[in-house]
Structure formats: structure tokens, C-alpha cells
């Protein structure tokens, strides 16, 4: 299978828009007009080429691209330098080897990638779709690449859309079609698209010949959710086009038999292609540190070369007559200058260029292991962890701040309808036992008002059922929209007779004499649906509970075959909602027999208890947006035939809008009461951690509606400022609402969230929760997931009042800080948690308060930001990241977390219920929050220590080896001679000692995974960059220097004055250098598996066999360092082994000793943990307990004083009185 | 493997239902294999270096190194070595005159005799070296200045030597054989040894000139251009190196197996020394079949045909007589180093033992993390 869309890096096959028009004009490609045909030709064709190279251009282009990398330029510079006769150190062909190797490896990798792209392009371009052909007057099969702008494409169900097209016809009688955008954004819920409005119906199917309209639309852009334009009919009438009319490339047609569209954007100009960005590239903290040290290496190199150059100049000057020895007549100064460059070639290895390649390989392997971790596997979703950023694995081990979203991240984001309040009466749907806890309001209504309450209830559930964008489908009819035919009048009548239920309109007194709740109960008693007889016994809500519980599990089979026999298909309805809240509400409504059965563009099919299916004419949908925080539907009520607006939205917004209509004195009292009660309930819900939504309605008179409609139509058709106008229009409509009630939806915590958060906190990671939810909800969840402990003091700063300005905020922060400092002084620990709301956050993020805010938050153990917008979230992350210079991680699941995820050093997306936007922008995508624990504590720790150690080892290795050559310069007149064969020299780094460090970077394991999980404190070593401090770097350098001194001077003294020739002298030096370097790694690595042994022994054997074979077969090769016979002879002499053994032992002695002493005298935590790993299970457990006890003790010391306040309290001590009142009155503006 | 994992999502693009909602559709199970390798649970040896664990290593190293060191030291001390500096920088030196007057261009050989005496007899084979000091045979330009193919008998290279040989590539428009600075600076002093009998008569000591080069050099690396046994013909059209008195085919006319490029003195010279002070094997004095020492104690005379000028680069020339052991020539360094390192290890072992007793128990009791 091939992916449909991939990043476009390659050449684009589209001609440039020559005219630079602001808009795009599209007409039917069947047009005869030549000018228009010309315009159409100027657009991109649908052929997609994502490959970078063609067959011919590969070598030059790839080379060119590779030459853009600094490392390669360095290599090439060295190779080129070697071709200059006066400075060359080796034969030119030898110095080409490294660069050739690097280029070749990269080129092969690129070629392979490109070939895959090419294959997939070919596959995609070769897909077939039906295009209308003028010649044959019918739809013919064409390949995707032959689709052009203006073509008419016919698609059937389950086909993939080849290009962005305007929907002109759908086989659906209502002119809608459904698309699945999973290929685009991973969202699997169906989205509805509709045929261009007012398109003259042209018989059964659209005839392309008769299509003479002109389409004007925007130039191609990458905004998936926006499309603006209009279509002009031959009659010059215009109709607005918007996103709803556009079928996007690579989406799939679902539930619709046939659609026809005209292509407006093709190929690389489609929104899908425009949205493809390459993989993310981030630079890790370790790499930044590494680059500094690479610069140090450069400095070192220059110093060494300068020393040699000056030395050479002086040496030459002192040499009286060099004519017969050294055939050179250049002046000493010039020779010194030449020598500088020669030395750069000789000592080039000092710059660990191969380190960058090695790091890439190691990171790929680390990612391989992360992806293969069975603990990250989610059975339910059959998904593993996705690593989308390939080069920041080690950052996972250095995280200091975690910013977490709440919904869907800490919680399941599986919404469960828990309770609702209708008209001020609460209907709890908790388990039976808990019910008594809730105080029920007395029924304040008179008997006569019963019908009123009923109306409320019916309206409430109507609103739940229809005020949404849920798409209904049934699994056994996937190709069609579920359409339940309207019941005949007879059927409805029969239904009523059968269940003996009165119609609403003829609600008779005997029924109303019942308590209103008994009706409710009946209404709610859907579970016992076999007979709809009213149940007078039982506790109110009991039945609802049971029915509800089934629903709560998100199962679709809630009706369980108990539904009305006349509707066998009803229980197979599947609701596909954009947000889980919506689905929960529709399911809830259905649980109470108010079933949404179908939806089309103009009609909604709702089944009401006792009334059967009713067709509700849908007039408008004003979709949800984050500014309004609400959505509305405008329908014509089936019973009253009035225009009714149902609005559903955030409580704060709806409560503000739900003003009593002026002049309606009688209802005013009740509305006020309802509002009061609802607010009370809402506060309760929030306290329990429920998500709240308010439901309201408004009855429009037809004149009012007409007026509004006119202006709305204008807004819809305008191209400029359409969004603003629509928003305004929506706001005009959504006023003077009548509050119906509110719902409380529970979002359960994910499993192991408290454990994970506790572990993170023990690991020294500060966890912040940033949520858009209300303060109470947020605190509640924070409490539930142990972010807040019962002993913690809560600092709330919610200056939500409008009068609280910056100064107040500043005062607040200062006061909080003082409080914390007092607390700290008294208790010696910070058991504080800061709770900030969005508005305060706004102030806190301002320039002059930043410092105070950070200072305060730094002293708190946890911070909860509620009511925060996506932008604020990212600002907070950015502030902390930049100001405190810490490593941040952001984790979230929804579109609102995207900006935060992108800002943080490490962004983690949770592939949850809310689509894939967060995953798409993340570096790692996990399926559960609990995976974070292992990802950070184990893999992060490992990746960091492994990589840090490998990098240090690389530096060590290079410095150690290069210095050997440098010391030799003191004995050869600083002439740039080497005592080793040049091939061996080049291969030493490239082959003989390259594999072990890689393995070390991939497999080394200082502490076992179990222990790392059990002792999160071990994570702190990574946070503090313990493994790679500047001091560690310099210590390693010093050790390398010492080792190279030993490695050079022991052979030097052993061979001084003897008849050894250059290569014989170099042979033991090289061999012992290899042994030292390999054994050094054995000392450094914490684990040795058979793989390590294999690679280490293999490297050594490779070296010795290579040099031996080379010294036998190489007769005249590799001048001037021809190795013939050298190593063979050397290795037959005992002196060689005597020198190697002594050198190796003496060189490694200090490090060996240092490790032993440090580990004995002051072992690090990591080492202690590693020691524990070696114990037998019993001892291990005992030691683990002991460790945890000491941890707890040290923590408990500060907490004793706080124990008395066992309940979470929200001390408002810091707020001035009037501010508090303010807050109560207005609520928060943001929600 | 990596890439396919990374693209796993991508490739499933056509079956998106399986990604979002678990139940739908049957896609391949993405559960990772629960193998020891993939789950990073390979059985591993964890060497943790603590005083306790490294203790034995130090003692073992100490116990091994000290005897080796003693052995090496004794071996080195048993080697007899005699070094005679005949540079002649000194007025009192017998070669003073030669050293002053001589230059590369002189045609008349200058000879001098250096008397010396042996206090101890040299048993077994004695190796005779010449030694040079302050001679940078390892200089990069010098080392490069040769043509291995030419020396290997390649005819093409004979006629047109490698550019590396410049400026000793051609002379008088004819290619130089052997070309290059190394060959050009061939050591050309002749050293002869005479034993002075107590009765005053001089006996020449037989110096063997074959077997001084490496076998591989003599038989593989260096070859005369083939085709003709008569080297004069073979080397026709080439010129001798500028500093040479005679052509390459006149190095040892008496022995065709030691003439031309395969002359062993030449081969030995061509193997450039590692350090600026070096010795090169010149002759071997084989052990006599009877029980008499190779070189009995007594008076000797070193007859030097002084051809090689070293004054220009402040060099020194020496003649060295030495026996060798299995460890090579006389060098007490290695033995002393072994003894020192061994003792240090032993000492450190004791220090570690103390530390182990002091801190070792702590690791097994309290674990108070810092």
C-alpha cells in the first residue's frame, strides 16, 4: 500500500501562475472558449511528483544537496587540500575515502527513499477514476495524473477523491455526500458535504455539457477548513461557495452512491498536498552542548596545527643544510604555513565528523527500540508508539517541566453522560446508592405548570438530539445514508394506541395530575421499554440509571432489541460525532427515547417517545467555534411549526445569553429561578469534575426570522470577511435564549494516571496542567490524579473580575509569593499548588509580571491553569522554556494543544478521540498517558545516558588517537609524518573502532527498566545533565591526553635508539591504541551482552587480521607507507606484545582506579540502583523498600504541619472581597 | 526496518478505520514482538567497578608484571653492547681530518682507524650496526621521496620514476635509478673490524653482509628489473643518484644476488628509521662453531672509509656491536617500566583493600540517595 500524500520536496510539475491573479477562475474543461482553455491549462495537472531526483539528475543533484551539509564540506575541503602537492599528507586517493564513504552511504539512503517515493507516486498517479469525456459523451476511466482542472469526475462510494473538487451532484436526494478525512487528518468520523446551493436540478444526473457556470475561488492554499468563492451562472446569478462544497483530495467518499464534481485544484495545488510538511527537525539539548564541544575540538586542532607549523619553521631554520636530506628549498616560514594545512589533514580525525553520522544511526536504533517496546502497545487501538521526530530521543531523558492537557490526556475523553438539570430540576444518574447524597429541589411548579415542565423536558432532549453535527449511519448499510422512511400516519396512530400515551398537544388532566417527575421517569424509563406503562414505584431516575450505564460504556446497542418492534433498524444506528461530547449527548438523548434517526441537509429525523419519527426541517446550522463557544441549530418545530433555535454551549456563555425576554413578566420569575438553580447545579457538577454544557432555546417569530435570514444570506454569499459576517450573524440570532437546562458529562481518568504523575513528580519533573475547563473541574481532576495531594496548600489566583487590572494581578502574585515564602520558611518544603485561571494568566504573561509569575510557580509543586486558550497554553510553555531555560514537554490530544506541543522541546500527542491534529504535530505519539512514565523514566533515561556516553567516548577516542600522531611530530621535525600506514590510519576511525561505540550508544543500559520505573529519582541525573557536563568533557579530554602520552611514549622508550623503522615503530602504538580504546569502552559500559563481546572481539580481530593480511599482500601499494612485512614481523616478536601489554595496562589504570574509587567512596544514585539490580530478588525488594522509605521520610519532614487540612480547600484569602464577589457574578469570560 | 516502522501509519492510510476505532476491520497486528532483544532484556554481564571487585585485578597485574619486569631487566642486562662514535667532530678523534675535509663531491676516499678494546668477550652472534644521530629519516618529504615500483623492478618506473622523487628524479635528462632522496643519501661508509692479537698482528674479523635485510624486503619488495641477468644492460639509460659514486649495478659486483636493487645495504637504508637517532644493521659476525667467543676480549681496530658527511646537519656517526636476546637489543627501559607498573598496581591493590574495608560495607546497608 502506498501513502497518498507525502511531503513535497521535489520538483513541482506545475507551471507558475503566470498572471499572478488574486483569484482562480475555473470553468468546465469542455468549454470551447480558447482563452478560458488557456487559463485552465495554466493550472497544475493532477500528476504528483514527490521525488527529488530523476534518473539523470540524481548524481549531480544529490551531490549538490549533500554539499550543503557542513560536515561534508569539511571532508571535501580536506580531500581537496590533499591534492595540493605542497601540503598533501597522504596519497590523494586515500583522503577521498572518508568523504566518498559518507557521500555514498547518504546517497544510497536518499536513493532508496526516493525510489520508494517514486514507486508510490507511480501508484498514485496511476489510480483510475472516471472523467467525463467530450468525445465519447460519457464518463471514461482515466488515470489520476490525467485529471485536469475543470474536469468532471464521477466517483462512487468508497472511492478516493483524486483532486480537490467542487461537489455538483450527489445521488443523495438531499444533495449531500459524506467524506471520511482519515487520510488527511486521521479523523474517522464522517463529514458532510453538500452540493453547491441552488444548482439547478438537471434531471437525475448532472450533464457536463450543460454546465456553463464560472467558478471564482481563492488561489491554492493550505487551509483545510476554508474555501471561499462563488459560482456564477450564465445568468450572472452568483452563489457562494464554501468549505462544505469542497471534496478534498485523498479523502474517501462514504455513504453516498455517486457524486460528481468539477476539479478546482489539482496535483500539488490541492489542499492535501499543500498541507504536507516534511518530518520535524528539532535540535536536542545534548546536540547543542555537543556542538560547543566540537568547536572546542576545532580550537584544539588549530592549536595543535599551529604548534606543529611553528615547530617546523623553527626546526627548518636550525637545520643548516637540508639540501641532500630533504629536497626542499622553500623558506622556513612558508614551509611552516604549508605544514599547518598538512597537519590539518593529518589530524582531521580530531573533529568528530563521523560522530554526526553515528548519532543519527544510534538515534534511529533507539527509536527502533522505543517503537518496539511492548509496553507502549495498546491492545484496544492496535497501536504502538509513533516516533515522528527522529532526533530528540535523548531529550526525553532531560525533561524538567511537563505541561499536560486535561481532557483526553489525563482523562479518557470518553464522555459519559452523568447528570442533567432541566428547568432547574436535577435528574441525577449516578449509581443508586449515591443518589441520596444529592439534595433534590422541591418541585416548585404548580400542577398546572406540568405541561410547561414537560415542554422543557421535551425541548431539552430535542436539543440534545438535534443540536449537533452528528452523522447517522448504520453498519449494515454502509453505502447509504440511513434513511428511515417516514411513518405513515396510520403507523403513528397505531403507536400511540399501542403504548397508550397521549400526545403532547392533547395532554389530558389525568395524566398531568401525576407528578411531573413521574412522566419524566416514564420518559426516562427507556430500559423497560417493552411496555411503556408508567411506573409509579421506584426511586426517580432508577431506570434511567441502568439505561444510562449501558450508554455510558459507549455502546451502541443500548436499545438491546427492546425498541419498538416497528423499528428494528433503530438499534443499529451509529453516531459519528466530531467531538465525544456530542456523541455522549446524542446517546443520552437516545437513551431516553429521543432518538436521532437520520440527518440530511434539510431534514432531521427524530423519534420522540410516544410520537414516533418526526421529520424536523432543518433551517440552519451555526457551527461551533471557539470564539462563540456554542453552536445552534435553527429548525422548524414539527409540532408547533415555529422557528426554533436550539443552542448548546459552554455554561458561562449560555448563562449570559439566557436573559429573560423583556416584557415576559410571568416567565421572568421562573426563568430567573431556573437560572439560579441551574447555576447551582452547574457549580456542583464542576466540583465533581463533570464537564458542563448548557442547553437553551429560542422561539423566533417568522418576521424576526425573515429579517435575520436576509442578512444571514448576505453573509453566506460574501467572499470577503465571510467568517466575520457569519459570526456576527450567529451572534445576532443567539440572544434572549430561554435556558432549558444543563448537562454534566463525566470524563473518566485514564488508568494509572495518578501513578504516572506521582512518578514524574518524584523524578523531579514539575507537572503543570493546562486546561480550558473550569477551575473547579480542573482542581477536581488534578486532585483525582494526585497532582494535588490532600496536604497541599492551594493558591488560587483567579482575578476574573473586570476591574482587577494589572496592578491587582501583580499585587496578587506578590502576595502569593510572600505566602509561599512564609510557608517555606516555616516548613522547609513547598507543598503549594498554584491554580491560575485564564484571565490572570493573561496578566501574568505580560512583560513586567512574567518574572514574578515564574518565581511563584517555581516555588510551587504543581501549577494548574484553567480556562486557558490554546494560545495561552503555548505562551505559558514558551515562557517557562525561554525564561527558566528548562527542558519542557507538552502532552495533549486535541487541536487546542497543537500550538503548545509545537512550542515545547518535546511534544507528545495522544492519539485519542479528538482526531489526529495533536499527533500530527507531535514528536512522539502515544495512546495513553501512562506510557509517559516509561517513555521518560526508562527510555528517556537510557537514550540520554547512552548518547551522552557515546559522544564523550567519541571525543575521547579521537583525541586519544590523534594525539599519538601529534607526539610523533616532535620526533620528525614537525614534518607531518605519520608512523602508520595511511590506510590503517583512515580505517582506524572509519572501520576498526566505529562499531563498538555505536553498539554502546544503542544497547548500553546502566540500570534495568524495572528499577528505573520503581525509582523515579534516578531520572534526576539526566535532568541535571550529569552524564555530560563540561567538567566531564574536559576530564575525558585529560584522560585521552594521558592515554595518548602513555601509548606513545612507552613504545618510544622501548624502541629508542634501536633499528626500528617508522612502520615497525607505529605498529605496536597502533595495536595498543586499539586495545586501549576497546578496553576503555569495556570499562565505561555498564552492560556487556554477547553482542558487545561479538563486536569488541570482532573489531580487534578485524584490525589485526587486516594489518596482517595487508602486510603480506601489499607489495608496492600505498607509498610512502608501504606496510609490506611490517606487521607480520612485528607480531612475531615478543617485544611487540610486551610493549602492548604494558601500554594498555598503564593507560587504562587511572580510569579504572577512578571508577573503582568513586563507586566505592561516593557512589551515585544510578550506581546504587545498578548495584541493586545485581541482587537476588529478595534482597532487591528489601532494598527497594528501604530506598522508598528514606525517600518518604525526607519528604515527610516538611509535611507534618500541613496534615490537618485533609480536604482540599480553596482559600480565597488572597483575593480582595469585592473581587471575589465579582467573580461569582460574572464568571469567567473564557471557558 | 526503521523506516517501515516509521511509516507504518502512512501505509495503513487506506484502512483508516482500523486506526481510529479498534474494533473495525482486521488489520495486521502491530503488537511488537516480545523478544529479549527487542525489549532490551538481553542477558548481560554488568561489570560494576568497585574497590571490592577490582582488588583482585590489581594484585594479579602486580603479581604478573613484577616477574616479567625482572625477567626483561635481566635479559637486557645480559646483552653486551659496545658503541663507538667515529664522527670525528673532536680534534682528538682519529677521524677528525676526514670529517673536516670530506664532502659529497670528493672523489678521494678518506680512511681513518679507530682503536677500541673489549672488556668482556661477546658470545653468540654479534650484530654490527652503524648509527646516525640527528638524521631525520622520518621527515615527511624525505620519506616520500622514493618509488616503490621502481625498486620492485617495474620497467616503466625505471624509465620514468614517480614524481615523488623530485628533485632526484632525473639527472642529465636520464632517469635516476634508484630515484629519490632516500636512495640518494645512502650511507656509504665502509666499516671493517680488525682484532689485534696480543702479539700485535691484525686479524680481519669476517663480517657477513647477507641476511641483514628483512626477508620480505629482499625477496618480495625489492627486485631488479627482469629480463636480463646482466644488470649493466638492465640499468642502461638510467643515471646514478647524484651523490653516489658508483651506479646501482656496481654496489656489489661480486655477488649478483646482492647487487642492484637487492643489495642488502641498500635495502636496509631504504627502510627509513622511526626516530632521528637510529641504528641500522650493517654486518653480522657469526658465532664460531667451536667454543671460543665470537669476539674475544682484547684490542680491536675499526677501519672506516669515511665517505658520509654528517657535519652539515650536525649529525653523529657510530658503530655499534651488540648481541641480541629474544627481546631485541639492549634496552633496560621496558624491564624497569614493568617492575614499576607492577609495584604501583600492587600498592594500589593494598590501598583499595583498605578502602574496601572502610566503605565496602556501606554499600550493603544504607542507601540514602543524595
From TrEMBL, chain A:
The chain crosses the membrane at residues 290-316, 336-359, 968-992, 1033-1056, 1062-1079, 1091-1115, 1135-1154. GO terms for molecular function: ATP binding; ATP hydrolysis activity; ATPase-coupled intramembrane lipid transporter activity; magnesium ion binding. Residues 532-571 are annotated as: Disordered. It is an enzyme of class 7 (translocase). It catalyses: ATP + H2O + phospholipidSide 1 = ADP + phosphate + phospholipidSide 2; a beta-D-glucosyl-(1<->1')-N-acylsphing-4-enine(out) + ATP + H2O = a beta-D-glucosyl-(1<->1')-N-acylsphing-4-enine(in) + ADP + phosphate + H(+). PROSITE patterns: ATPASE_E1_E2. GO terms for cellular component: endoplasmic reticulum membrane; plasma membrane. It comes from the Eukaryota. Keywords: ATP-binding, Endoplasmic reticulum, Magnesium, Membrane, Metal-binding, Nucleotide-binding, Translocase, Transmembrane, Transmembrane helix. One of its GO terms (biological process) is phospholipid translocation. It is found in: Endomembrane system; Endoplasmic reticulum membrane; Membrane. Its EC number is 7.6.2.1. The active site is at residue 405. ATP binds at residues 405-407, 582, 624, 648, 691, 771-773, 867, 873, 896-897. It is a multi-pass membrane protein. Residues 40-96 form the P-type ATPase N-terminal domain. Its cofactor is Mg(2+). InterPro entries: ATPase_P-typ_cyto_dom_N, ATPase_P-typ_P_site, ATPase_P-typ_TM_dom_sf, ATPase_P-typ_transduc_dom_A_sf, HAD-like_sf, HAD_sf, P-type_ATPase_IV, P-type_ATPase_N. Residues 919-1163 form the P-type ATPase C-terminal domain. Belongs to the cation transport ATPase (P-type) (TC 3.A.3) family. Type IV subfamily. This is Phospholipid-transporting ATPase. It comes from Oncorhynchus tshawytscha (Chinook salmon). The gene is ATP10D.
From TrEMBL, chain B:
GO terms for biological process: phospholipid translocation. The keyword Disulfide bond applies. GO terms for cellular component: apical plasma membrane; endoplasmic reticulum; Golgi apparatus; transport vesicle membrane. Residues 1-32, 146-171 are annotated as: Disordered. It is a multi-pass membrane protein. The chain crosses the membrane at residues 48-74, 333-355. InterPro entries: CDC50/LEM3_fam (IPR005045). The keyword Transmembrane helix applies. Keywords: Cell membrane, Cytoplasmic vesicle, Disulfide bond, Glycoprotein, Golgi apparatus, Lipid transport, Membrane, Transmembrane, Transmembrane helix, Transport. It is found in: Apical cell membrane; Cytoplasmic vesicle, Secretory vesicle membrane; Golgi apparatus; Membrane. Its main location: membrane. Residues 161-171 have a biased composition (Basic and acidic residues). Belongs to the CDC50/LEM3 family. This is Cell cycle control protein. It comes from Oncorhynchus tshawytscha. The lineage of its organism: Eukaryota, Metazoa, Chordata, Craniata, Vertebrata.
